[in-house]
Each structure stands twice: as C-alpha cells, then as structure tokens.
Amino acid sequence: MDLLEHQAMRLFAAHQVPVPAGEVADTPARAGAIAARLGGATVVKAQVKVGGRGKAGGVRVAATPAEASARAGEIIGMEIKGHRVREVLVAEASNIATEYYLAFLVDRSAREITGMFSSSGGMDIEQAPASSIVRIPVDPLDLTALPPAIVPVAERLWAVFVREDATLVEVNPLIVDAAGRVLAIDGKVTLDDNAAFRRSFAGLSGRPDDPLEARAVAKGLNYVKLDGTVGIIGNGAGLVMSTLDVVAGAGARPANFLDIGGGAGAQVMADALSVVLDDPAVRSVLVNVFGGITACDAVANGVIQALDQLGAAVTRPIVVRLDGHNANAGRAILAGAGHPMVTLADTMDDAAARAAHLGR
Predict the structure, then answer these.
(1) Distance CA 143, CA 141 (A)
(2) Cα dist from 306 to 300, 309, 347, 354, whole Å
(3) DSSP track, 264-275
(4) What backbone phi and psi angles, to 5 degrees, belong to 45?
(5) Sheet of strand 22-25: strand arrangement
(6) Catalytic position from the list 67, 87, 99, 170
(7) Which candidate, 50, 38, 33, 15, places its Cα nearest to that of 225?
(8) Which of 240, 321, 326, 332 is the least buried, fewest Cβ under 10 Å from its Cβ?
(9) Which residue out of 87, 101, 213, 223 is catalytically annotated?
(10) Cα–Cα dist 73/90, whole Å
(11) 3 state SS of 230
C-alpha cells in the first residue's frame, strides 16, 4: 500500500520523527483556514501518489492565508501524471539551511535491505550524479555514513521501516533548518499489505485515492493507474508486465496495469474493460490473454458482454490478442460479433504495435 504524503507524515510523527505541522484540505476555503491556524508562511502541496509534483506546479508557497486559499484553488483539480488532485496538504514553511535525501528500501535484486543517502536532497534528486548517493546494506548499529546531526532521526525512520513492515521509507528532503532543527518535510512510504494484521499504526486507510483504482478494488481487480494512453488488460502479472514493456517499445505509454488473474470468467473481463474504458486518458485498449485456467472463449465472451453493457460509450478501439487454451474459439466469437471497435491480432508484438498506433 502506497501512502499519500500526509499519511506518511502522520506515520512519521507517531514514531517521533519531527515533521512540520500541517493539515489536509479538500477546498480552498479549508486550506485558507488551516494556514490561518498555522500562522506565518505555508506550503500547499498536492496529495497524489506520484513524484514530480513540484515541477508540475503541485507544490506552492503561500505567504498569507488568502494566498494559501488561492494556491489550493489552483492545485485542487489539476492532473499530475494522470492522477487528479483532490486534496492538498497545508504545512508550515521551513527555513531550509541544508537538504539531504534518506531512504530505506527492500532491494530485491541484492536480496537485502538497503539504505540510500545523499547530501543533494531536494526537487532534482533524480538528476543527482550516482557518485553523490551512498547505497549501503543496512546495519542499524552502524550509521557512520550519516552526518551526526541526522542520526537520531534516521534511527526513528528505521523504526518506522521495521515496525510498520514497510518496503520503502523515503524522505526527500530531510532538512536541517536555520535554527538547527532536523525535519522530514516530505515522505514516501510503501507498506506490505500482507502484514496489515500486525501493523501498530491504525490511522491509515487502504482505500485508493484514485476513483478508478477504488472501483477496481471493489470488483476484485489488480489495477494500477499509470500516465499513458494505451489501456492494458492481461491475465497474470508477468504477462501484463511484459505487455507494458512491449507497448512502450512500440512507442506508446501504458495507461494502466490490470491483471484479471488466472481463473477469470466473462464477468471479470467485462468489469476490467469497463474500468479501463472509464479512464478519459485511454485512447486504445490492448487485451492480451494467454489461455490456461482462463479459457480464451470466456475472455471473448467477456469482451462482448462488456461491449453490450457499455453500448455507445465504447468510442475507442480495442485490440485483442488471444493465445493458448480455446484461442481459436475465442477468436471466432469476436470475429462473429463483428464489433467495429474490436481488432484481432495474432502476436503480442503485432497487437502492441496496433494499440500503440491507435493510442497516439
């Protein structure tokens, strides 16, 4: 489960990690009222689960409550990498003297927990040279790579990582302000859903903030919103990930990850297509299914069922590639239906090329 920034900050505070005071607002008026309570300058920050908010205009400084209200009005409703901003965090502005980057994460390739530290924290951390970022296997008893001033906060962030069963705890930037205080003024946290039953901090909701993701969860679908134009539906996480790569290789950007699973029937396929087509960013859809437990004729019937349910709302082309169990029967069902928005493809490369062309 990925947390929104304000959730991460509350989690940090519960573990005595110092953070700026702040509250969440979903209207400009509430943002102004929060700024008035905080007093002084504030920062109004879009709450979406993607990076690059600052460069997209989703993080703005306000000198007065009226300005905070105005900035919130500009940010709420904007779209950042395909994610609609529905609320903002209004937090105390900090007088930054020094910025750092600090993260703990599960490094699956190295099969260990890794700590990452850089003295080049801030908005452009992605462009920081590799030589400026220290990556070390985590030994919680040895924090000698860190500046002494931030070691106590690093130890508390490590406690967040361990006690809350996180797979990522990232602070960018971790600052020392002009008064010498160390503050985590931004945070990204990913928690292991499998450990939710033993998590000590109860102030979190697993509800996705994106309405399409929430709908997908309600229907039992594995769906993640991305920022492209080609909707992706497949069966099996590996096949879906491969499909994302092939679509990207064909020159288009995937709009989502959606895995219907290994035993999905017609209704699941219909639900999946309905969710994907409800994304206004989607210009084409690629359905890529290898029949095994999920028979291709059931997938084809699901596509037809979804098209019947959606009716005139289906205005974007759908490319379908079926292979494996009952593939010939599935292709025959779709060919016989003759829907004008459905195109059949024989191979994954061909399907991706067609979907990418239609999605541009």
Answers:
(1) 7
(2) 10, 5, 23, 21
(3) --HHHHHHHHHH
(4) -125, 125
(5) 22-25, 88-92, 42-46, 59-62
(6) 170
(7) 50
(8) 332
(9) 101
(10) 12
(11) strand
Nearest to 68 by CA among 30, 21, 19, 95: 30
Q: What DSSP assignment string belongs to 2-67?
A: BPPHHHHHHHHHHTT-----EEEESSHHHHHHHHHHH-S-EEEEE--SSS-TTTTT-EEEESSHHH
Statement to judge: residues 167 and 302 lie in one domain: no
Where does a domain end: 92, 107, 129? Answer: 92
Task: Quote the CA–CA distance of 134 and 290 in Å, as a whole number.
Answer: 43
- The domain spanning residue 131 has which CATH number? 3.30.470.20
What is the sign of the dihedral through the CA atoms of 58, 59, 60 and 66?
positive
Peptide bond into 280 cis (omega under 30): no
pLDDT digits (tens, 9 = 90+) for 236-281: 889 999 999 999 999 999 999 999 887 667 788 888 998 999 999 9
CA–CA–CA angle 260, 81, 244 (5° rounding): 35
**What are the residues facing 288 on neighbouring strands?**
234, 321
Q: What is the pLDDT of residues 127-174, one digit of tens each?
A: 666 666 777 777 655 667 788 999 999 999 999 999 999 999 999 999
Percentage of the residues of the chain whose pLDDT score is greater than 70:
92
Count CB atoms within 10 A of the CB of residue 75.
24
Give the total number of structural domains in the chain: 3
Report the alpha-carbon distance of residue 298 to residue 17 in Å, rounded.
52
69 with 87, same domain: the answer is: yes
Would residue 100 show up in a list of annotated catalytic residues for this protein? Answer: no
* Measured distance CA(85)–CA(164) in Å, rounded: 27
DSSP H/E element including 213? helix 211-218
Locate 253 and state its tokens: 């950007």
CA distances in angstroms from 244 to 80, 106, 175, 286, 327, listed in the order given: 20, 23, 37, 10, 22
CA-closest candidate to residue 168, choices 153, 184, 186, 188: 188
Task: Name the 3-class secondary structure at 287.
Answer: strand
What type of residue sits at position 171?
V
101 counts as catalytic: yes
